[in-house]
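#onboarding

Welcome to the new folks! Below is a worked example of what a typical request in this channel looks like: someone posts a single protein sequence, and someone else replies with the predicted structure as tokens. Don't worry about understanding the tokens yet, we'll cover that in week two.

Example request:
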Amino acid sequence: MKATRDGRAPAIHTLRTRPRYAVELEWFFNRAEGDMGMRSTFELSLGVRRPGMEAPSPEETVGRAHAYRTIRGWLRAIDDRDAGVLQAAYEARPWPVDLYDDLGRLTGIVVRLACDAGHWPADRRAQQAVEMARAEVLAADCIQWRGMSTSPLLPLRREAERRFTRAHHAYARVRGEAPCAVRVS
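Example response:
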């Protein structure tokens, strides 16, 4: 990461990612399992009669499985903290609108930073409940402090920007200049 030496927030251009990275990470954290045919029993019972749902060809299934393994390998090759930051940034969640409008891709990272690590539950569903509760509090702060330079969200945002930039640089180093692993349809 090319951080400033005086501790200032990273330049906005460092937060912009290459489109193929965003496509890969968005797909991996939100659509990979469904695209690879890991659908619920209910969906499978509907078969191809469900409007707009066609069974993927064997070639598509193999291609998606290969893309999944490739991206998973790249994520495993970077530090766990960086992979966690990318998951927090790209995993689609029903964040409060006011919070997401102000923070965009950084929302999940800011919410995670605002959570008490000392009281972090082991169960993933419990973690998500804690995150959503914290997000509601942050959304209220967001409305109350909007446009003020003394907002309590500013330090969280700056730290989220720093971590997001570092995580993307780590991902970029590992994946190199390979073409996009996900076939965009």
